[in-house]
Write a structure and sequence with these properties.
By secondary structure, this protein is an alpha+beta fold. It contains two helices and 15 strands. Strands 1, 2, 4, 5, 10, 11, 12, 13, 14 and 15 form a ten-stranded antiparallel beta sheet that branches. Strands 3-6-9 form a three-stranded antiparallel beta sheet, with no helix packed on it. α1 (2-18) runs antiparallel to α2. It starts with a helix and ends with a helix.
């Protein structure tokens, strides 16, 4: 009975570790869908944009102040990470809403304010906050890669919240994401860990 109780406890811990866990990806990757803002109309402030070509959107969390541009001069000057255009928000933060729940998400960030960095909030399909993680967003025209993947629930949307006092001015370029391949894939991963634990327990027995 003690061995069974121990196994069930270990299985519970394994599943708990898998649930609602977002982990950083340090190396750039190319997901199923990509968005470089190259085909977006530039120089027009809007409340939302269709992105990734699959029905996903990026939406302002304030007024209609999202801007796709070829360059942005505020406290410093920002040029595209690649190509001719990139996207940012003037005094507004924003959120991505995925047409298909995401497994991975990433891209390049910077800010043309005097305070680096942003917070990225991850939400599941039930609108539960999964994690709040720090994103690198350098100043002075420098770009930094940020990427994440879920080890639990699928990601339905994310919010990008600037650290600076101006609100917004977090620039993004060369964004990418991959949807969950199938609805139960990550659940199977969690149960797979439990199965491995069961095999190990049986062998020890």
């Amino acid at each position: 009975m003690r061995k069974i109780a121990l196994f069930l406890s270990m299985l519970g811990i394994a599943v708990a570790i898998q649930a609602d866990t977002i982990v950083p990806i340090s190396s750039p990757f190319t997901g199923v869908y990509s968005e470089g803002f190259e085909t977006q109309p530039d120089g027009v402030f809007v409340a939302s944009l269709g992105v990734f070509g699959d029905g996903s959107t990026v939406e302002s969390l304030g007024g209609p102040n999202l801007l796709v541009t070829v360059g942005w001069d505020f406290l410093s000057d920002t040029d595209p990470h690649s190509g001719d255009q990139f996207m940012g928000g003037a005094h507004v933060n924003y959120r991505y809403i995925f047409a298909q729940p995401a497994y991975r998400f990433g891209g390049y960030f910077n800010t043309n304010t005097d305070v680096a960095g942003a917070t990225v909030n991850f939400y599941d399909v039930s609108d539960n906050l999964m994690a709040s993680l720090t994103a690198s967003a350098p100043t002075n025209g420098q770009w930094a890669w940020n990427g994440w993947e879920t080890r639990g629930a699928a990601i339905a949307r994310i919010e990008v919240i600037a650290n600076n006092s101006f609100g917004g001015f977090i620039m993004q370029d060369d964004m990418t994401y991959s949807p969950i391949p199938e609805p139960t894939s990550l659940l199977l991963l969690g149960t797979g860990l439990g199965a491995l634990g069961l095999v190990a327990w049986r062998r020890k027995k």
